[in-house]
Write a structure and sequence with these properties.
Elements: E1 13-17, E2 20-26, E3 36-43, E4 51-53, E5 57-64, E6 67-71, E7 80-84, E8 89-92, E9 98-102, E10 106-114, H1 119-125, H2 137-142, E11 145-147
Antiparallel strand pairs: 1-2, 2-3, 3-10, 4-11, 5-8, 5-10, 6-7, 6-9
Length: 170
């Protein structure tokens, strides 16, 4: 790539992934495979299963809402938990298990993959009425992704009693 790329929200290519629409802000084909960037408006039901990548590092920039991240172990119960709000940057190096889920009804996030070939998987899934990640294990394996545990359960409503609320690690 020999020129800078500026792409405002909505100017990328849009495609269906399960029952949501993703915006491909920057494609790996535009960056000679170096990076892929997608803009997602995630709902709680869009949380992926706990998984690990062997081919790329993944980063997230939270644009709106609050997102909970589980990282670092082969089961949700053993993972570290971190909450991130607007403006937060989260880095997930390859080989580190992770998943994420909005704590708010929706959250907008930029997902950055280095290198960017994994976008081929997301485009290959296409539309469906709900997530069925376990139906795509072979496709995930072609991109070096292994599912380790299920997706996070829906967030529980916080109790009104402050002592009953345990904050996530920061």
């Amino acid at each position: 790539m020999s020129v800078a790329l500026v792409r405002n929200p909505g100017e990328g290519t849009h495609y269906r992934y399960y029952d949501s629409v993703q915006e491909q802000v920057v494609s790996h084909t535009e960056t000679d495979g170096v990076v892929s960037v997608a803009r997602l408006t995630m709902r709680r039901s869009d949380a992926p299963p706990l998984h690990v990548h062997s081919h790329e590092d993944e980063s997230w920039v939270v644009l709106s809402g609050r997102i909970r991240f589980w990282v670092g172990a082969d089961s949700l119960d053993a993972c570290e938990v971190h909450d991130a709000g607007p403006g937060a940057y989260v880095f997930g190096p390859r080989s580190v298990p992770h998943t994420l889920q909005p704590l708010t009804t929706t959250a907008e996030v930029l997902v950055v993959n280095n290198p960017g070939a994994i976008e081929g998987y997301f485009r290959s899934v296409g539309p469906a009425e709900a997530r069925h990640d376990r139906d795509h294990v072979d496709g995930l394996a072609r991109y070096g992704v292994v599912l380790l545990d299920g997706p996070p359960p829906p967030p529980r409503r916080a109790s009104r009693a402050p002592s009953a609320v345990k904050p996530a690690q920061e």
